Amino acid sequence: MVFLILIFSSIVHYAGLKLLNHLTLSIQGVVSVIGPKESVYTAVFIQLFTALSISAVYGVWIAPYAHRGERSVLTHVLPINKIKFSICYVICCSLLLLINALVMIGSFAGVFGISALEKAIFPWGLLLKAFAFQTLCLDVVMLGLALSSLIFGQVATFFIGGTSLFVLQILGTVARLFRESTPPSLLSGKGLLVLIYEKLPPIGDFIFDFKEVMTGGKVTLEHISLWLVWLVILNLLFWFKVRYPSQARSTEA
Amino acid sequence: MTQTTHLEPVFSLKNVSVNYGFSKAIESVSFELKRGQALGLIGANGAGKTSSIRALLGMLKIKQGEINILGEKKCTPDVLKKLGFAPEEATPPEYLTAKEYLQFLAKLKTNDPIQNRNQIEEFLNWFELDPNKLVRKYSKGMKRRLVLAQAFLGKPELIILDEPLNGLDPLMIQKLREKLKDYRNQGTSILYSSHILSELENTCTDVVMMHRGSVILKDTVQNLVKEYGGVEKAFAVQVEGK
Questions:
Q1: Chain B contacts to A (CB-CB under 8 A)
Q2: CB neighbours of residue B123 within 10 Å
Q3: What is the CATH number of domain B37-46+75-240?
Q4: What are the pLDDT digits (tens) for A167-220?
């Protein structure tokens, strides 16, 4: 898995940044190249894409692997406290995301040179905060997908996951519009939808919050708390699911 | 944690009922296994044998009743260290070799690296397993042997075997019989669930017969042979009335 991530991540980051490095901008006759300082944010968003892919693959296939079908019985009788499984998967996913981030930094240095990593050009402080926030959010996404994979199966989760992320993104934008215009009324259908959305992991606000962190702003305490609460909830749900793997009579292949 | 003495049962199920959704899997099932005993669990397909075992191991939420296993009310990690289980249908992790898998399990069960190393080497030879081949390249029979081998790791006080003979050749069946005898002589208790009733006669001291989710008979093998002429005939009389 680590080897595959290194290859996948390296190709995407290096190719993306190399392409960026060859682009020129022509504005009103003034031609300029996209340098390292301008490329940092693009690199971080490319990294975000690869990180999301990694956490999705980990959640849909890797985390549930030992708990599905004919493997689940042998996993259940391992002399390990069941809560340790989900904690271990969160730690492993976080480490994989860290490797991915390091690959991004390495690719950046490979394309623009080691000097591009100096503090004047490369916003280390902001990046560390952004990675920490991203890791928290993607661990929640990973656990959600893992739980769905155990309950509904991998193929269904692939579609459920994609649809959920899409719908939550839309709801996030709708919620923002509502918050900015009028306070939502409990009697209004749309208002109720927004109220429900505000209790879910703020996936729809993730891009806005991530951009906020990258530009030196702060994520609201409400959002951080929601992500942390859902991390705990999904850990407990995953523990409960692996605690009783045999509630269905037949097991999957 | 309490230690089980030679007087206490190794495990007991008392009036245990389990449902799968709205359908009954087992109802008011009670039986126990005493230390050093080899208990055969028999019944037709769907009788509730595997459900009883899974309820015992905490894999199913019980609707009612009490379970006690190795002195505890549920299967904690400490209990699982002293227990070996070979399920009916199971596939070990396919991206490990047999040796890696047994090493991983042995480390979880005991802290004695020398004992672990010796035992793993012994099992790989005894169960005729290629130590360096990935599990996904194993045949069905070899996977079955690996699942059985892992049940004997450590020094289990209780070994639970669910249809252990599936996929085994006659030579391996004979070897398994000898292995179980060895472990029983060392004080390990055995719960053996099987359709092959003649094998149960050779291996077990006592029998629990299940039918449609309930226990219909509990007796020693000796008594069943005396009264019915064998376990198979006892089963036929009890279940089919012949």
A1: 20-21, 25, 54, 57-61, 75, 77-78, 80-81, 83, 85, 87, 89-93, 105, 108-109, 147, 150
A2: 23
A3: 3.40.50.300
A4: 887 877 777 776 666 555 554 666 677 777 778 888 888 888 888 888 888 888
Q: Which of A71, A78, A79 sits opposite B91 (nearest CB)?
A: A71
- Give the distance from residue B225's alpha carbon to the nearest chain A alpha carbon, in angstroms: 34
**Contact criterion met (CB below 8 Å) for B201 and B225:** yes
Nearest by Cα to A230 from A141, A110, A162: A141
Task: Identify from B23, B24, B53, B54 which residue to disrupt to test chain A contact, counting A C-beta atoms within 10 A and taking the largest count.
Answer: B54
Residue A108 to residue B5: CA distance in whole angstroms: 66
Write down the pTM of the prediction.
0.86
Closest-CA residue of B relative to A244 is: B59
CB B48 within 8 A of CB B19: no
Total CB pairs under 8 A between chain A and B: 57
Report the complex ipTM: 0.87
Strands lying side by side in the sheet with B64-69 = B23-34, B9-20, B64-69
Helix axes A154-180, A189-197, angle to 10 degrees: 120
Quick check: helix, strand or coil at residue B14?
A: strand
Distance from CA of B74 to the nearest CA of A (A): 12
